[in-house]
Structure formats: structure tokens, C-alpha cells
Design a protein that fits this description.
502 residues, eight-stranded parallel β-sheet, five-stranded antiparallel β-sheet, globular, binds alpha-D-glucopyranose, GH, Glycoside hydrolase family 13 protein, hydrolase activity, GH13_cat_dom, O16G_dom_2
Length: 502
């Protein structure tokens, strides 16, 4: 792969706790992931991004990091992580890890020291009383009190105290953490809550000084060559978003505008055009994201009358036509893979898993659920352990009882069941990624005028992608169909279907 492998990469997101369990304790781990590397190789991805794997009390699924330089014992050991990186590299798969710089954990050494010694509190946001009325993103106040009466800021759960980026020690610490992992061969980092680091008394999102942090990180990354910085930047203003991607800052960032779109040709075209026009001036490749560990799975989302995504209530319990959603998710997968730039695949998307909406409340673990007083169901429904094989739970996930229950009906969705079914979602992803590797990825597109309800474009390689979002079948342009998300009859592309032609 070239110096700029990340510009067109297909990146597979591993939510480790739910990927594969190697030791039978019901939680996914590095042993499970290592044993499934051949599956990922066969799927045809270029890189793996892992959610946080550090020691953590798991108040927020590992986004409460107690030690940035080690591995959570439930997941394995640092030695195993190093072996995993080597094994992935042997298969020509890059490894991207998650770095969480906005906040740490109440169990981190720094926070424990701060609790014991008020003189050591400047690495966090401590004050004699709340400095503002900010609400936590998970619900409730963003300020909590410690036993001696002071308050500290946490934009997320109380177990996730925000770090104070006005303190040079915090900068030093994270530059060291980056080096620690780059030296162990990690090819890139996904930066959690990347726009929130810098705070004033009245604002915390997208303050200008945050760019100084990433300019410095870019210098660190560049010292190691071929390492990529990927921002988790949720900003509605795409011009502001693109500022993170200036040539001396982050390499890429997740495209949440595209993810949040309704399954609607106008909304999607608007988002694609906006994405291309904001990325081109800064020279950064766009990313195409349909799903991740925080959002409702596409099969469920696209089967609803309102198919947009927003964090709020997540439209939980709104009726979804899963057959329709599945069909659209197939069409969307090929659309996303065909667009210029890199593409993300969240584990289970390639199996067409739906959101699990009927989890018993007592098993829900996401702090979003508890902190919203149950109003928001939270994100557990997209984090269910993967079904690998067999006829009943745990579906080959491991020998123990999975940490979240799997639906009985997933027997039809196991990787094993889909492997031999040529029409399966798994085989659509495999074929799509294989063609993508040869002909798609980084570059530009040219729109083809096939009507308002048809998203059709040709890529530099000559491949044409056509997605019909209208109700009626439409004629395909000339060419040989090399892949389609559904059957094509008499040269007509049915509703909610994508075809690729050369
Ligand atoms: C990001 C993560 C999410 C986490 C939050 C706080 O949005 O994707 O899972 O809860 O940051 O770290």
C-alpha cells in the first residue's frame, strides 16, 4: 500500500467487547479477534479500527480510560496487543486505535491523585462551584461534587472527568501516549470527541485553540511516517468541520452528515456534494460512514418512515419495515463503497444485523440509558455480540454467556450461514470490497443526470454506480453490470437498489 493508504482505505470497526470471545467469559477479547483475522482478510478490508482497549472500569464501554498505556485485562495483555498488531500487518491490514483525550476515568492515577491532593487538580476542571449550567451529553448536570465539596466537569458520565487542555502537562501526556503506540506499530489513531477538548467558561465545542493541539499531533505523527489521525468531529457546519482537515492537522474525519441523512435522494445528494466541496479545498479525502457503535443500525434505520439519525431519542420503538431496511442497507453499502475517499464498515454491518430494540431494561449497560432516566434507550442495541455460527446463542461468539443477549432469530444471520449463500449481505460486502480495491477509493466522481431520484456517477476508473431511490424501476445506462445489491430485470434498476457497471 502507498504512503497515503488511508486516502482510499476500507476500514473495519471492531467493537472488541462484542466481536469474538476467546476465553469464554462472555466478553470479546484480543484472543477472539486474533482468531478471526482470516475472516477479516477474506472480507477484503485494509485496516481495523478498534474502540478503546485500555484498562477501564467500563462506565462508558471503555471510553473511561484508566491507563492509556496498557490493555484492559478482560481484553488481554499488552503483549497480546503487540502480537495482534504484528499478525494484522502480516496480513497487510493496518491497525488504528482509539485515543480519548477529552476525558479520562475517575480511576486514572491523575484523578486519584487529584482527589487526595487538591494541589494536583489542575489537570482537570475543578472549581468551588459549577462554573456554568452545562448538561452532560448523557443527561444530567455536567458537574459532580467530590467529598471535600469541590466540583469537577464531565461532559459525559461522572466517571469521565474532563481533562484541562490549558495545562501543558496534558499536552505532554498525550504526545507521549501517541508515541507509545506509534512505537508499537499502530498505524493511526481515531480521536474521540475531537472537537471538545478546549473549554472557556461559556463554550466547549469547536474552540479555535483546539487546532493547535492537532497541529502538534500532526508533527508527532509525521515523525513516524504513514500514520493517520482520524477525528471524531460531530459539527453541523461543514466549513468548520473541514478546518480540522487542513494540511497540517488531521488526515481525515468521520462524515456524520452523510450518516445522519434520510434515505432520500435529495438529502443524500446534498450531503455528497457538500462533502466533496468542503474536502476538496483542504485536499483531504472524504470518508463515508453508515454506522458505528453509537448509532442505530442502518437495517433498522432505513426501514423507518423517518430514516434520519439523531442522538436524542433514537426513534426507538418507531415501527421499522426490516425487509425494506435490509434492501436499502444493501443499496447504501454499495453507494458508500463507490464514493471517492475511504469507507467505514462497523462490525455486523456486513452481516446485515438489525438494531436490537427489545433488550430487557435490566441488561442495558449504556450510561445514556440510565442518565436519561430511561428516556433514551442508549446504544446497547447496536453493540450485541456478533453471531458467528450455529443454531442458537451464543452463535459461536464464545463458550460463555455473551455480555448482552443475542436474539434467537440471528441463526439466519451468522457469518457461517451467509458464507455459502451467494446472495447474502456478507457476500455483497466481499464482492463490493474486492471490486472497490481494484477500481474505487480515492479520487473524484462525475455525476450522471439520470433524474432527481437516481444517484448515478462515474469514477475515474470508468466504473459507474447507480442507486435508484425512486419508487419505480429506471433504465440503466449502457455497460456491463459487475455487481448489484438486488436483482435487475430487463435492464431496469428496481427501487432501493444499487448497480455497478463498467
Ligand atoms: C464518542 C464515542 C462514544 C463515547 C463518547 C465519550 O462519541 O464514540 O462511544 O461514549 O465519545 O467518550
Amino acid at each position: 500500500m502507498s504512503q497515503t493508504w488511508w486516502r482510499g482505505a476500507a476500514i473495519y470497526q471492531v467493537y472488541l467487547r462484542s466481536f469474538a470471545d476467546g476465553n469464554g467469559d462472555g466478553a470479546g477479547d484480543l484472543a477472539g479477534l486474533r482468531s478471526r483475522l482470516p475472516y477479516l482478510k477474506e472480507l477484503g478490508i485494509d485496516a481495523i479500527w478498534l474502540n478503546p482497549w485500555y484498562p477501564s472500569p467500563m462506565a462508558d464501554g471503555g471510553y473511561d480510560v484508566a491507563d492509556y498505556r496498557d490493555i484492559e485485562p478482560v481484553f488481554g495483555t499488552l503483549g497480546e496487543a503487540e502480537r495482534f498488531i504484528e499478525e494484522a500487518h502480516e496480513l497487510d491490514i493496518k491497525v488504528i486505535i482509539d485515543v480519548v483525550p477529552n476525558h479520562s476515568s475517575t480511576e486514572s492515577e491523575w484523578f486519584k491523585e487529584a482527589l487526595e491532593n487538591p494541589a494536583a487538580r489542575d489537570r482537570f476542571w475543578f472549581a468551588d462551584e459549577p462554573l456554568n449550567d452545562w448538561q452532560s451529553i448523557f443527561g444530567g448536570s455536567a458537574w459532580s461534587q467530590v467529598p471535600d465539596g469541590q466540583w469537577y466537569l464531565h461532559l459525559f458520565a461522572p466517571e469521565q472527568p474532563d481533562l484541562n487542555w490549558a495545562n501543558p502537562e496534558v499536552h505532554q501526556e498525550f504526545e507521549d501516549v501517541l508515541r507509545f503506540w506509534f512505537e508499537r506499530g499502530v498505524d493511526g489513531v481515531r480521536i474521540d470527541s475531537a472537537a471538545l477538548l478546549i473549554k472557556s467558561d461559556t463554550a466547549y465545542e469547536d474552540l479555535d485553540e483546539v487546532h493547535d493541539v492537532y497541529r502538534r499531533w500532526r508533527e508527532v505523527a509525521d515523525e513516524y511516517g504513514e500514520r493517520v489521525l482520524i477525528g471524531e468531529v460531530w459539527l453541523p457546519d461543514q466549513e468548520r468541520f473541514a478546518r480540522y482537515l487542513r494540511p497540517d492537522e488531521l488526515h481525515t474525519a468521520f462524515n456524520f452528515d452523510f450518516l445522519s441523512c434520510a434515505w432520500d435522494p435529495r438529502d443524500l445528494r446534498r450531503s455528497i456534494d457538500l462533502t466533496l466541496s468542503t474536502h476538496t479545498p483542504v485536499g483531504a479525502p472524504p470518508t463515508w460512514v453508515l454506522s458505528n457503535h453509537d448509532v442505530t443500525r442502518p437495517v433498522t434505520r432505513y426501514g423507518r418512515a423517518d430514516s434520519t439519525f439523531a442522538h436524542g431519542g433514537r426513534l426507538h420503538g418507531t415501527p421499522s419495515d426490516l425487509e425494506l431496511g435490509y434492501r436499502r442497507a444493501r443499496a447504501a453499502a454499495l453507494l458508500a463503497m463507490a464514493l471517492p475517499g475511504s469507507v467505514y464498515v462497523y462490525q455486523g454491518e456486513e452481516l446485515g444485523l438489525p438494531e436490537v430494540e427489545d433488550l430487557p431494561n435490566e441488561v442495558r449497560q449504556d450510561p445514556m440509558y440510565a442518565r436519561s432516566g430511561g428516556e433514551n434507550p442508549g446504544r446497547d442495541g447496536c453493540r450485541i455480540p456478533l453471531p458467528w455460527s450455529g443454531e442458537e446463542p451464543p452463535f459461536g461468539f464464545g463458550t460463555g454467556t455473551p455480555w448482552l443477549p443475542q436474539p434467537e432469530g440471528w441463526r439466519k444471520l451468522t457469518a457461517e450461514a451467509q458464507r455459502t449463500d451467494l446472495g447474502s449481505m456478507l457476500n455483497l460486502y466481499r464482492s463490493g470490497l474486492a471490486i472497490r480495491r481494484e477500481r474505487l477509493g480515492d479520487g473524484t466522481l462525475t455525476w450522471l443526470p439520470l433524474g432527481e431520484e437516481v444517484l448515478a456517477f462515474t469514477r475515474d476508473s470508468g466504473l459507474t454506480s447507480v442507486t435508484n431511490l425512486g419508487a419505480d424501476p429506471v433504465p440503466l445506462p449502457a455497460g456491463e453490470v459487475v455487481l448489484a445489491s438486488g436483482p435487475i430485470e430487463d435492464g431496469l434498476l428496481p427501487s432501493d437498489t444499487t448497480a455497478w457497471l463498467v
